[in-house]
Each structure stands twice: as structure tokens, then as C-alpha cells.
Amino acid sequence: MLQVTNTLTRTKEPAVPSGAGPVRMYTCGPTVYRYAHIGNLRTFMLADLIRRALEADGVEVRQVQNITDVGHLTNERFDHGEDRMLVSARLEGRSPAEIAEHYTRAYLADAAALNLQPARSYPRASAYVPEMIDLVERLVAKGHAYEVDGNVYFAVESFPAYGRLSRNSLDQLRAGHRQEGVDPRKRHHADFTLWKAAGPNRLVKWDSPWGEGFPGWHIECSAMSLGELGEEIDLHTGGVDNVFPHHEDEIAQSEAVVGHQVVRTWVHGEHLLTEGRRMAKSAGNFYDLRTVRERGHDPLAVRHLFLQARYRSQFNFTWDALAGAERALGRLRDRMAEWSRSPAGDGEALGGDTPALAAYQRRFRAAIDDDLDTPKALTVLGELESDETLPPADRFRAVAGFDRILGLDLANVAGEVLPDGAGELIARRERARAERDWAAADRLRDQLAGLGVEVVDTRSGTQWRLRR
Ligand code: AMP
Ligand code: ZN
Q: How far apart are CA 239 and CA 95, in angstroms?
């Protein structure tokens, strides 16, 4: 069974109790005011790997991923505490709803291109504001929150476990808050905003018991996780920057309302870096899948690259490393195509797995189960790939099995047939690209996606694959 490092205990634990029924998993989702960068996608892929490993064991996983289309106040310099959605709306001359719609679609397409299995639901923060207001009211009623001038704050001193996840004490937090200047309306320097009064220029706002305003970022994930998954959640994922304050505050809010522990296991992915610095929208040092494609790479090469590091380690992205991952992926696909055509036979006819094959399968699974040691799992795959003592059909079957967790579409290489009309669309798209008519090429890409065909423009020409 899969073990993961629980941030609450800092130890490896079974991801879910043995014999668990449907597993409830909440994944902090994207803020949809720009394209997700590949660092964001690395964190979302962590949730996908956990899910695939559990599903390979026959465990049903109910995954919910929120879409942050409102709020998300930060103190980053980029927006000086303004709502990022509104900043983008102003910069792009579109309404906040149009921006959110555009980038939500783009995110779902990116997730599909990386073979992230779709979540059961993608609740939008903007559709959950009444539930957020309800939570804030209950926190006020229970003495965990207070209102000043139309703003509502969570009183951290009312929740003794505050700081348990991030291992911060209230005194440690004092230093950081001092530098930023403390809001004089707060009773305690670490109190955080649940509801904020709307300023005069605020476009997106809601009526509330405290006047017109809008929710803080953290309350959205409490409202959506409780609303979609209930008061007992098995797994909650995010990036390490979410530990504090986002998840610390989510715990305080949710648990203060319901009166008991909500999330059992928190799993956090380390950051993707570029040139040694965290890849971040605010720092401007980020790449997204559009750039990956423009540079002629297959998005699944990104997936292969990310599998080369464990989720708990930082990982420095370079284009050279991506090219290397793409070569390794191409080699694997070629071998799979070759094995699938091998006249040596039909693996099934050999009657089950030989002990040699079973040993590879055990070692692969042990690596995955050991806190998602994907680099080791790839090493086992590489050994199997070059083990010429194994019949090709056996190797095909084993690697296809590994791929249920790796998600590299390795079993799809052989015998794929394009649906009716897709060949014509691909040819038209090639012509459009040759004529540099990018708008037409994009339209044709969308039409192909509608038929379940994904096209990838690589240096060696356009390739296609079927979406599952
Ligand atoms: P955002 O869209 O900014 O809310 O971020 C979405 C997710 O990406 C969050 O869970 C972040 O923790 C995560 N994230 C942000 N930057 C990185 C990075 N450089 N590497 C890995 N994950 C990241
Ligand atoms: Zn969240």
C-alpha cells in the first residue's frame, strides 16, 4: 500500500487506512488569472500520482479540485494585495468572469495534456460565496472571529492548535508580521482575514452581514472542501508554499467550526525551480505548456521529467533536461511499439507472469509505495527495458501495467486508429501551420480535441495521440 509523508506528523504513513472505502481527496487548484506554469502542474501531478497509485490497488478516489476565481489576496509585490483576478481583468481589458473562464479552460486542457486524470468536481470559489459567508458567521457566533469596520478576522488565540501544521508558534510569527506592518484593527498580529470590506473601486463584491465585501483566500478552501467532501477528508494536497498560511488557516477555520479534525493526511510537493529560484508567476521566471509546445516538445516529456525527481525534493528545470526526458520517452515508445509487434508472441499465451517478471513488478510497486519514489520506479523500468532475457510480449505487458501509474501513454503506441475525419483535420492543420495561420491551426486543434485526438508539434513534425 502507498505510503506518503504526512506534513502534520513529518513521517511516512499509509496514504489511507487499509480497507478504506471511497477515499476523499482535496487538491488545492489553480488561480485562474493566468496560464498555470509547469511548477503549478508539478504540484497537481503529485495528486494525480497518489490517485493513480491508490486506484491501481482498486481503491476508489473521490477527488475535488477547486478553481480560485475570486479572492486570493496576497502580499506579493505583483499586486500589492490587490485581487489578482481584477489586476488581470484591468490589464487585459476583459471582465473578471471572462478571464476566469478563459484560464479555467486552458487549465483543464493543460491537465489533460499531462494526463492528469480529471477530478470528480471542480468547484468555483465564486459559486461558493454563500457557504463562505455561512462559515464566517458560524466562526463569529462561536467566538473564533470578530468584525471591525466591515472586515472579519479569525482570532488565532481562540484556536490552540494554530501553528501545528507549519510548526510555527504565535511568537515566531510575530517577527514576520512586524516587517509587513500590522493592521491596527487586528487583536493579534497573526489574526487573518476571513472577509474584507469592499473599497470604492472594487468590481466584484457580495452583500454580507458585514456590508459589501469579498472573501479571504483561505476560507474558500474550507467552504469547498467541507461542502464537496464533508467533515472527514482522507488526503489534502498542495505545494509547500501552501503549508503556511493557506493550509494552517484552513485547518483553523474548518476545525473551529466542526469541532474535530477534518483532514487526516496533508501531502505537500516541493517547488520546481528555474536557475535555482522558485518558479513563480510573481517572479516572472515561469514557463507554461504553451512555451513547451512552441519549443517543439511533447507535454508528456514534462511528465517524464517530473517523474525523475521525488515530489519531496526541489527540482531545477532546464530545457536540456526536458530534451533528455523527451528522448527517453521516445525510446520507450519505440520499444513498446516494437514489443507489441513482436512475433514472439502473445504474452497471455505464456500463461501469467514469470517469476522474473513478477520480481520487476514487485520492485516497481515497492518504489511507488515508498513515498512515491518515482526516480527508483523509472530505474526499475529502465532495467526491464534492457533485460533481453524477458520475452518482448512480457515486457510490453509489464510496462503497460507500470504506465497505469506513470501516465506516459506508453500502452497507446500500438495499433491506434484515427477517428473518421481526423486525418483530414490534421492535414488541414499542417497546411495552416505552413501558412503561419496560427488562428486556424488553433481552431483545428480544438476540433481535433473534440474528436479525442491530441496533436503535438515536435521538431520531427506533427504527432498525434488519442486521449483516453
Ligand atoms: P496558484 O495558481 O498560484 O494558486 O498555485 C497553484 C499551486 O501551485 C499551489 O498549490 C502552489 O503551492 C503550487 N506552486 C506554486 N509555485 C510552484 C512551484 N514553483 N513549484 C511547484 N508548485 C508550485
Ligand atoms: Zn486551497
A: 29
- Start-to-end CA distance of the chain, whole Å, equals 26
Instruction: Decide if 347 contacts 393 (C-beta within 8 A).
Output: yes
* CA–CA separation, 55 and 2 (whole Å): 11
In angstroms, rounded to a whole number, what is the distance separating the alpha carbons of residues 130 and 123? 13
Torsion of CA 413, 417, 421, 424, to 10 degrees: 50
Q: Which residues pair with 463 in a beta bridge?
A: 456
Ligand that comes closest to the CA of residue 247: 2
Indicate whether residue 40 lines ligand 1 (CB < 6 A): yes
Instruction: Name which of 271, 308, 255, 253 is nearest 43 in CA terms.
Output: 271
> Largest alpha-carbon pair distance within the chain?
77
* Pairwise CA distance, residues 166 & 169, whole Å: 9
Residue 146 — φ and ψ, nearest 5°?
-145, 155
Sequence-distant (≥ 6) Cβ neighbours of residue 412 within 8 angstroms = 465, 466, 468
Q: Where are the beta strands (DSSP E) in 118-198?
A: 145-148, 151-154, 192-197
Do residues 215 and 68 lie in contact, with contact meaning Cβ atoms separated by under 8 Å? no
Q: What is the helix (H) or strand (E) element at residue 52, kind and residue range?
A: helix 38-56
Ligand 1 site-directed mutation target among 25, 35, 43, most atoms within 8 Å of CB: 43
Please give the grid coordinates belonging to residue 308: 525523475
**pLDDT for position 78:** 33
Tell which one of 37, 40, 41, 306 to mutate to probe ligand 1, the residue whose CB is within 8 A of the most ligand atoms: 40
Query: What separation in Å is there between the alpha carbon of 274 and the centre of ligand 1?
Result: 14
Among protein residues, the one with the nearest Cα to ligand 1's atom 12 is: 239
Is pTM beyond 0.90? Reply is: no
User: Which three cell numbers mark 336?
Assistant: 513498446
| Residue 241 in contact with ligand 1 by CB distance below 6 A | yes
Strand partners, 193: 153
**In a 3-state reduction of DSSP, which class is residue 234?**
strand
- Residue 224 CB burial class (10 angstroms; 0-12, 13-18, ≥19): buried
Q: 401-423 in b/e burial notation, b at 16+ Cβ within 10 A? A: bbbebbbbbbbbbeeeebeeebe
Cell of 19: 480497507
Mean pLDDT in order along the chain per 10 residues (468 residues)? 97 91 96 94 98 96 95 41 66 81 95 96 96 98 98 97 93 64 86 92 89 94 98 98 97 98 98 95 90 96 98 98 96 88 53 86 98 98 95 91 96 68 81 86 90 73 67
The whole-number pLDDT of residue 467 equals 72
